């Protein structure tokens, strides 16, 4: 290890040449990196290539700095060996060389850190959100296709109406002219000119371009459009990402989809990197404090209700347009004309056919569209919150790398580490008593969020021992905000939550509702079988909400005077939608009680 460093005189002309080369090399390297990245983006447009670009895009800056530091260090050594001391080559051991070497090591270390961090972010995002984004992209593609087809049909119908109005106007004018006085009567030139102008005006009104005509629906709801005819969803090729936010003029509800606009751009580009995807998302929520927590909760509730209203309106218009007047359900044949491939039309039809009965009712259409709109909102908010946590993780890694580089720079400048180590160690020990617990909690929370990752924004979770389920509203590094079904907002520390059992309802499979009763043992078996048959028939008729029913005798109870029967009905999906859950559970219990009363089966709950 060197104990001292020395400076070496360099001629002014040599310094000027080196400074000019430093500035020119920085500009040239930036141009080279930019050209290579954009050329790769133009040549390779598949989704797999887009994922690689999402990984490389944030690294352009560090890659440029690392290459520039290496080139500068090499140029400095070449200048010393060829211009300053070409014979002895003993002028390399100086403070400037040490500084250039330190800059090169620092830039390379931060480039490696950025590469590893972005690789982790890409892996985390792919494992957590890729399937949800894939389903969401296809759902948006289907809704956009139906919306565009409906608008084209409305424009065509409006054009036909304009033509009919033009013909009718011309006929009316001709008829009025025919009813005019005979040629023998005195007709002034002004009257003849006025009749001719009337015919010309009627023709001009009918020839107005469709683009200048009024909108087909003045109250058309905002909708996130991320697909067009140049995008092949089946093959995964993104030829020209089309992102449009279609809103009605003067609509007061644009803010509901404001934060989805940039998110749609990310989906259109198929970027799977949260730092790249979510950097463009506008953060809509304010910092929640004790004073404004109530107002934030009320605003979130209003936005959710507003989103449901808009989704319901969109589903209603789409269903009424697709469904003929003589039917109450949509069939596969109604979807085929609006998709390029029959397989895509069948897949789109299956998206809405929840009960797999070959028909789509108005309630099914409404339920799926509301679900897609809410999924858009939840995914955007979830990725946005995780972006904040990832930024804090990146800051912690940068501090750690900077601490290690601090010792490297001391070695490069020949500083005695023994003296510095004692001072730094004393400071670190003192800091441990102050922030040691916070750092440990922060590390545990980061592991909980990124490794365990038990929930996302919008997920419904159930914690054993708690009566009400919770809906995740906001995720931070140290805390998570929940909303109970009764509207109460709860803020919990992640250090406490990570020690609990968490049941994630949204990620669960279709769930079952169970009823266990005790009935007298003298009830005939035929009566039990009749109960099972009637309930099975009712569940078959309610295929939109339920998929199967079963009832069987489990064991004897209360000695030998009673026996236990177990009834189970499987719902079509899980209980993520609390409103739908309670409606279906109430409907099933009501019917089950009615059948028990009809068959005169006395029973009491366990």
From TrEMBL:
<dbReference type="InterPro" id="IPR002048">
    <property type="entry name" value="EF_hand_dom"/>
</dbReference>
<dbReference type="Pfam" id="PF00924">
    <property type="entry name" value="MS_channel_2nd"/>
</dbReference>
<dbReference type="GO" id="GO:0005262">
    <property type="term" value="F:calcium channel activity"/>
</dbReference>
<feature type="transmembrane region" description="Helical">
    <location>
        <begin position="61"/>
        <end position="80"/>
    </location>
</feature>
<dbReference type="GO" id="GO:0016020">
    <property type="term" value="C:membrane"/>
</dbReference>
<keyword id="KW-0812">Transmembrane</keyword>
<feature type="transmembrane region" description="Helical">
    <location>
        <begin position="95"/>
        <end position="116"/>
    </location>
</feature>
<feature type="domain" description="EF-hand">
    <location>
        <begin position="340"/>
        <end position="375"/>
    </location>
</feature>
<feature type="transmembrane region" description="Helical">
    <location>
        <begin position="420"/>
        <end position="439"/>
    </location>
</feature>
<feature type="transmembrane region" description="Helical">
    <location>
        <begin position="395"/>
        <end position="414"/>
    </location>
</feature>
<dbReference type="GO" id="GO:0005509">
    <property type="term" value="F:calcium ion binding"/>
</dbReference>
<protein>
    <recommendedName>
        <fullName>EF-hand domain-containing protein</fullName>
    </recommendedName>
</protein>
<feature type="transmembrane region" description="Helical">
    <location>
        <begin position="17"/>
        <end position="40"/>
    </location>
</feature>
<keyword id="KW-0472">Membrane</keyword>
<dbReference type="InterPro" id="IPR010920">
    <property type="entry name" value="LSM_dom_sf"/>
</dbReference>
<dbReference type="InterPro" id="IPR011992">
    <property type="entry name" value="EF-hand-dom_pair"/>
</dbReference>
<keyword id="KW-1133">Transmembrane helix</keyword>
<dbReference type="InterPro" id="IPR006685">
    <property type="entry name" value="MscS_channel_2nd"/>
</dbReference>
<dbReference type="GO" id="GO:0006874">
    <property type="term" value="P:intracellular calcium ion homeostasis"/>
</dbReference>
């Amino acid at each position: 290890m060197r104990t001292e460093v020395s400076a070496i005189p360099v001629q002014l002309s040599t310094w000027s040449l080196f400074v000019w080369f430093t500035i020119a090399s920085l500009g040239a390297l930036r141009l080279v990196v930019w050209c290579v990245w954009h050329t790769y983006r133009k040549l390779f447009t598949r989704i797999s290539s887009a994922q690689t670009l999402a990984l490389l895009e944030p690294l352009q800056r560090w890659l440029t700095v690392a290459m520039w530091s290496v080139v500068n260090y090499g140029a400095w050594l070449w200048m010393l060996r060829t211009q300053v001391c070409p014979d002895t080559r003993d002028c390399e051991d100086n403070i400037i060389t040490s500084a250039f070497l330190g800059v090169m090591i620092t830039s390379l270390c931060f480039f490696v850190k950025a590469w590893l961090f972005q690789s982790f972010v890409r892996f985390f995002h792919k494992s957590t959100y890729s399937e949800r984004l894939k389903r969401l992209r296809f759902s948006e593609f289907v809704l956009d296709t139906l919306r565009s087809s409906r608008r084209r049909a409305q424009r065509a119908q409006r054009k036909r109406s304009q033509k009919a109005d033009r013909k009718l106007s011309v006929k009316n004018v001709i008829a009025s002219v025919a009813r005019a006085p005979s040629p023998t009567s005195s007709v002034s030139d002004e009257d003849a000119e006025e009749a001719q102008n009337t015919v010309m005006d009627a023709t001009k009104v009918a020839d107005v371009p469709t683009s200048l005509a009024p909108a087909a629906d003045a109250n058309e709801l905002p909708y996130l459009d991320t697909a067009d005819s140049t995008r092949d969803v089946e093959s995964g090729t993104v030829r020209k990402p089309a992102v449009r936010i279609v809103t009605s003029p003067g609509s007061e509800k644009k803010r509901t989809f404001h934060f989805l606009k940039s998110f749609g751009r990310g989906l259109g580009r198929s970027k799977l990197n949260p730092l790249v995807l979510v950097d463009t998302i506008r953060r809509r929520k304010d910092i929640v404090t004790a004073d404004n927590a109530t107002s934030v909760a009320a605003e979130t509730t209003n936005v959710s209700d507003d989103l449901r209203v808009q989704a319901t309106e969109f589903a209603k218009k789409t269903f009424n347009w697709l469904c003929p007047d003589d039917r109450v359900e949509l069939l596969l044949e109604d979807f085929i004309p609006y998709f390029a491939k029959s397989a895509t039309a069948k897949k789109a039809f299956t998206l809405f056919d929840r009960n797999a009965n070959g028909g789509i009712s108005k309630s099914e259409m409404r339920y799926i569209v509301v679900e897609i709109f809410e999924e858009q909102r939840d995914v955007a908010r979830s990725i946005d919150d995780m972006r904040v946590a990832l930024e804090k993780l990146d800051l912690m890694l940068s501090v750690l790398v900077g601490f290690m580089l601090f010792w490297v720079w001391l070695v490069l400048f020949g500083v005695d580490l023994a003296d510095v180590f004692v001072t730094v160690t004393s400071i670190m020990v003192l800091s441990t008593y102050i922030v040691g617990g916070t750092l440990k909690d922060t590390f545990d929370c980061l592991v909980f969020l990124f490794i365990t990752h038990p929930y996302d924004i919008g997920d419904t979770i159930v914690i054993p021992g708690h009566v009400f389920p919770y809906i995740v509203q906001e995720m931070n590094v140290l805390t998570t905000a929940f909303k109970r079904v009764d509207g109460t907002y709860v803020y919990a520390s992640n250090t406490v939550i990570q020690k609990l059992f968490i049941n994630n309802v949204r990620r669960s499979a279709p769930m079952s509702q169970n009823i266990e009763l005790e009935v007298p043992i003298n009830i005939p078996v035929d009566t039990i079988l009749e109960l099972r048959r009637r309930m099975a028939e009712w569940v078959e008729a309610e295929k939109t909400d339920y998929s199967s029913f079963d009832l069987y005798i489990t064991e004897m109870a209360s000695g030998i005077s009673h026996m236990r029967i177990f009834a189970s009905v499987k719902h079509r999906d899980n209980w993520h939608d609390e409103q739908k859950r309670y409606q279906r559970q109430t409907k099933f219990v009501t019917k089950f009680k009615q059948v028990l009363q009809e068959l005169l089966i006395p029973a009491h709950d366990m």
